Amino acid sequence: MKSDPVLIRDAVAQDIPAMVELLSQLFSIEQDFVPDGEKQGRGLALLLAQAGAHVLVAEVQGRVVGMVSLQTLISTAEGASVGLMEDLVVHEDNRGEGIGKRLLQTMKARARDTGLTRLQLLADMDNTPALDFYTRHEWHCTSLVALRRHP
Question: Which CATH number is 6-121 given?
Answer without folding.
Answer: 3.40.630.30
